[in-house]
Specification:
Elements (H helix, E strand, L loop, with lengths): L4 H10 L3 E5 L3 H9 L4 E4 L3 H4 L11 H14 L4 E5 L9 H13 L5 E3 L5 H9 L4 E6 L5 H4 L9 H17 L3 E5 L3 H10 L4 E4 L7 E4 L1 H4 L17 H18 L12
Parallel strand pairs: 1-2, 1-8, 2-3, 3-4, 4-5, 5-6, 6-7, 7-8
The structure holds 3-methyl-2-oxobutanoic acid.
């Protein structure tokens, strides 16, 4: 059965913690969906983990739509959230509304996410039938403003500001809120203060849900990862071993065997 934004509200009401993962392609979306992951975010982290950009800033709307459609084709039950790319909603509320509508109409998403205290845009989307997930704390599209990927909300003033924005986004109609890279105590405070679910990524153990980038969670990403990432598998090693075995068997002629070959 398809998960809706109302199911997420019910999870919070029942105190049931839930998982969200990113997905960028149909096969992975299908695997995660079958595994019972209720929310799939087509994150603009696409830019870094799939497209090889340094940051999420260059990601375009066409790239986001291309991958959102793929995820929508692969998933059957999960709530699909399309992540609005940098530049597609910051210039005007009208731009933002148009972008959000495209995710639902052309991408097959059920909802959208965008970063920062875009209160008016949340209000306009909600008024027009587009469910919005907010995103506060370390908002990666602002990496150049922050001067790097740094924990946010450490000072009392910054923590108060994040709490105030969170309440404003809820008031404007957001159905959930991602909190990224903030002290655990702030994650807990915001979670207690809101009636909508919070979904943490580096925001401690007390948020209502947790999200990770699927490539990080499955160990496909290599190199230094943020402190909050837990690798649940080593898919990079599995692919590397498989590729070496394939190449070795091709070299010796062991592959393809008769079972992989066609007769007349
Ligand atoms: O783009 C993304 O993957 C995200 C999550 C990290 C929340 O925004």
């Amino acid at each position: 059965m398809t998960i809706t934004i109302h199911d997420l509200a019910a999870f919070k009401a029942r105190g049931e913690k839930f998982a969200m993962l990113t997905a960028y392609d149909a096969q992975t979306a299908s695997i995660l969906d079958e595994a019972g992951i209720p929310v799939l975010l087509v994150g603009d982290s696409l830019g870094q983990v799939v497209l090889g950009y340094e940051t999420t800033v260059p990601v375009t709307m066409e790239e986001m739509l291309h991958h959102t459609r793929a995820v929508a084709r692969g998933a059957r039950n999960a709530l699909i959230v399309g992540d609005m790319p940098f530049g597609s909603y910051q210039v005007s509320v009208e731009d933002g509304l148009r972008t959000a509508a495209r995710f639902l109409k052309e991408g097959g998403a059920h909802s959208v996410k965008f970063e920062g205290p875009q209160v008016e845009l949340v209000e306009r989307c909600s008024m027009n039938g587009i469910p919005v997930m907010g995103h506060l704390g370390l908002t990666p599209q602002s990496v150049h403003l922050f001067g790097g990927y740094k924990v946010q909300g450490r000072s009392d003033e910054a923590a108060d500001r994040i709490l105030r924005y969170a309440k404003e986004l809820e008031e404007a109609g957001a159905f959930a809120l991602v909190l990224e890279c903030v002290p655990s105590e702030l994650g807990a405070t915001v979670t207690r203060a809101l009636s909508i679910p919070t979904i943490g990524i580096g925001a401690g153990a007390d948020t209502d849900g947790q999200v990770l980038v699927v490539n990080d969670m499955a160990g496909l990403s290599t190199g230094k990862l943020p402190k909050f990432v837990k690798r649940y598998a080593d898919v990079a090693a599995v692919i590397s071993d498989a590729a070496r075995s394939f190449a070795a068997e091709v070299a010796t002629g062991e592959y393809p065997g008769p079972e992989h070959s066609y007769g007349n």
